[in-house]
Each structure stands twice: as C-alpha cells, then as structure tokens.
Here is the input.
Amino acid sequence: MATRTASVSVSWRRGAAGRRLSAWTVARHGLALLFAAFVLLPIVYMVLIALQPTSTAGTEVVPKIWHPETFREMWDTVSLGIYLRNSLIIATLAGVLSSVLALGAAYVVARFRFRFRNVFRISLLATHTVPGLLLLLPLFVMYAIVQQTVGVVIIGTYWGVVFTYMAFALPFSIWLLSVYITGLPVELEEQALVDGATRLEVVRWVTLPLALPGMVVTFVFAFLLSWNDVLFASVLTSPTTRTLGVGLRNYLSENYALPEWNQLMAASIVSAIPAVILFLIVQRYIVTGLASGSLKG
Amino acid sequence: MIGNRSETEATAAVVGLRVAAPRRGRGAALRAPFGLMVPSLALLTVVVFIPMAFALYISLTGLNQYTIGDWLHAPFVGVRHYVDGLAPNGPLTGSLLNSVKASLLFSLLTTAAITPIGVGAALLFNGPLRGRALLRAIMLLPYIIPTFVNAILWRLVFMNGSGVADQILAALHLGSRETFWLIGPNALWALVIADVWAAWPFVYLMALAALQTIPDELYDAATIDGAGRTRAFWNVTLPLIRPTLGLALVLSTINHFNNFTLPFVMFGTSPPEQVNVLPLNIYVNSFITFNFGLGAAMSVVALVVMLTPAVVYLRAARVGDTD
Here is the structure.
C-alpha cells in the first residue's frame, strides 16, 4: 500500500502511467469532490437566490421562476453604482500610492545598512498584530480634532480612508518589496549612478521597472485590504463616499426584517468579482511562481 | 491588521519569499537616502504609531461625546474603565470580561476546526488528482470572497424558518424549522460555521506551501524503511510542516479574535450575548454610545490578550535572526 503511494506520486511527476484505478485513487477523487461541494454549494446557493424574484428569494432554494432581471434592478434599490465607484476609487488609490511609497522605503532597507534597520523591520512585522479597532477610535478622534482646529475636512472624504488604508498596507508592502529588491542585480543602479543619476532617478528609472512584478503583488494586496474593509469605512466615509461593504451592510440593517434577498445576493456577487479576479491573477505569483524553485535555496 | 489580510502576508511569507540577507559592503559605505523613507515613515507615524499611544491615553480618560469638544481637558479617570469593564458585579456587569471570553471561545473553536480541514485538503491536493489546478483555485474561493459578502450569505442561510439551514434540519428531521440561529445561544455556532467556511483555505494554503518544500526522497526513504502511509505522515510530513502550521494557527487565532466584519454584518450592533465578541463590544461603546474612554480601554485589553500569540508569532518569524 505504502509503496504504491510513493510510486504514484513519482510517476505523476514524470507524467507517465499511474492511471491504474485503485481504490485509493477513487477515494481521493471522491474526497476532492466533497471538498468542491463544501466550497461551491454556498456559492451556488447565492447565485440561485440572486436569480429569483423577490417574492420567493430567501424561502426557496431552487427557483420556480427564473428572474435574471435582479441583476438590473439592484442598481436602483441601493446606490450600488456610487458604492462601486467609491470602492474602486479608494482601493485603486490606496493600492497605487502605497506601492509607490513602499518602493522608496523598501529600496533603502534592501540596499543600505543603517542603525535602526532591524528595529524598523521588526516594528513592521509587529504592526500586523495590532487590532484595527485599537487604532480606529484614536484615529477618528484625531481626525475630528484636526477638523475642529484646522478646519480641514478629513472624515467623509476619499483621502481620509485612502491614507488610512495606505498606512495599513505599508508594512507588508515595504517588507515584500525589500525582499524583492534584494534579489535584483545592483550593477545597473551603480552604472546609472556613475552616469550621474541621482538616487531618486535611479529608483524611478532603474529599480521601479525591475520591481514592477513585486509592485503588482503589493498593489493587489492593498487593493483587497481596502476593498474588504467595513470597519474603517463605516466610520470614516459619508453617504457620498460610502463603499460597497458599508453600503450593503447598511441596507441589511435598515431592512432588518425583510431585505430583498435576491438583490442583496446579486449585489454581493458583483462585490466579490473584482476581488476574486485580482486574487486569481496574483495567485500565480503567490503560490506557484514563488514556490517553484527560484527562491527555494 | 484589518480582518484576515495579515494572513495573506503570512502566506506570501511562507510560500517562498525568504528574507534574504542584504548585500554587505556595497552601498553600505554610502549614506542611505533616508529621504526615500520619509513618506512611509510619516504615514505610519500618523496612522499607526501615534494612535496607538493615543489609545492608551484615551483609555485613562473620561473622553466621550460631550467632552470631545474640549478633549484636552477630558477628566482623567485612571484605570476606572478597566475595573468597570472587568468586574463581574460592576456597573457594566462584566461586559468586557464576557466579551473576552466570547472572543477567546470563538477564535479557539474556529482555529481548532479549520486545522484538520486545511491540513487534510493540503495533503489531498498535493497529491495526484485529475483537474488539480482547477480544484486548487476553487478551494481558495471562500477565502477570497470579501468578509462582508460572506456574512450576508450566512445570515440568509441561518434565517429562522426560511433559511436553508432550517430547511435542511427539518427535512432530515434533526430539528425544528423554527430553530433560531441569529438570536440566542445558537448564534455562536452560526458564527463559527460561517467563519470556518471562510477561513479554512488559509490553513490549507500555508500547509500546501510547506508540503511543496518536502523533497520526495524523504518519502522514498520512509517507504524503503517500511513506513506505511500513516507512519510517513506522523514521522515525516508533520514534523516538517509543523513550523509553518504553528505560524498559521497563531495567525489564525489572532485574526479570528480581531474579526469585526463577520459578527458586525451577521448580527448588527445589538448581538446576542454569546456572539458579543470583543471587536463588536468595542465598536458599540466607541461609535454607538460614544463612550470613547471605555472603548479605548477595551481595545487595549484586546491588544494585551493577543500579545501572547503575537510574541510567539514574532519569535517564529525570526526577524531578528536574519539581520
């Protein structure tokens, strides 16, 4: 029995035989199907609810009447278009800007050794464990104080949340990009410096193009962080800057007893799609690309 | 920091990005262009470091919606909020203590449940399977779907009477169609089930990454030595994935403990006692009743409770060693 496991896994890698239908193989595929069902059934349920008219949605599982118009109607029930636009603007800004800022800091950490380098790197990792709620309240109070004393409106604007998300994305982005830059050859930078370029020009014209794949990952990370957040957005946005997560949750709480489940599910599906697409794009980088050889040793 | 995103970070960390030592010598002689770090440092200082210190200060004051206008003169109340929150017979009837218990129970239950599921799936999908690439991508779906979407979905599933959970229970004669999941003691199970479904792929991803670094030769050797499949798992696989798995479990506990979105969207701001987890309780005190001092005290307690696993995490990540 044990011999077979080992030989099957080896032959699989060789792409040869291993096609014998043993009980073990059948069991494995059966288990895989069970896992797929476990993951997919709730998602299918969501889709089925979205395709029903309001009258049956939430009580029936399989639609008696199909009602794909839900996906059109939902735009009028809540300001879904505005929420979607706000989420896109906020997440894109946070993703781009935090990746750019992180590149600068990551460059210094990767290429230079200085006194508080380790302290800085440890504090980057340490910030991951801080609960968001610990920061939200003082941030809210600080923003409110600034608003009162300086008169600059922060709460309810795009910039308030964008800056907040940027800061939360920075520790991971700096850390990842510094690892990435360390792996880049230093010769091109030195050549540029010899040719009279300033540090800033070197980072802009030499390092940035080479670090772009790493910046794609940090962009997606910051984008998803912003896209998924409900906590900070629920306090720091106003009706005009409200994001998808907050908008949908508010609709749910305002129509506590009888929300239009079909539209809510349709809107939820729409909210999930950008996140799924982006994650699947970088999944290559995160899982296969990085695990396969090049960085192993 | 927000929700379960730090899990993504850890995934990338384990999946192959090893922290490389910086080049010595070159560049070291030059003065570092610290100007490039200033924007990042400034932002982190304003949004993370100062608020952390400020939270500690607020927790010792009577800052609320009435004193916010003159916040500098908010009365200093010392540790009163901490005592009030934790004392079972205090004015809050131990609300804070109950929330700490609820949060610990919730995060430990979910972590305990997702570990075998995640490791099992990783073992399964690391081996030969038809359509493996597609199946692997599908497994990630619950983890990628935004938490607020996940919460809305499970809220519908657990609606009493009409929800599919009750329909299945009734069809299988396991329970009444009028079983309440979103109010009363069952709420804890509704929350755990929703979170288990959404979070298990994280353990799977980490375990899978660790499995892929184990060379086949080890299994061949184990087979030659006469070890069966079970023995090979306990004596070869498990010891080798243990460091990664340990990190995954610590992170998962922290992230479930800090999960705000799921209970917030599923239960709203007046949740059943069993799911009045710490993040919800903090939110209600801070932004519904505007008792900022108490809310800050509660979030400091949350930080302290999670400090133990956090220290374990930092030691496991071994940042100090890689210089």
Q: What stands out?
A: Residues 10-29, 319-323 of chain B have pLDDT under 50 and may be disordered. Chain B touches chain A through 125 residues (CB under 8 Å). Chain B is about 65% helix and 0% strand.
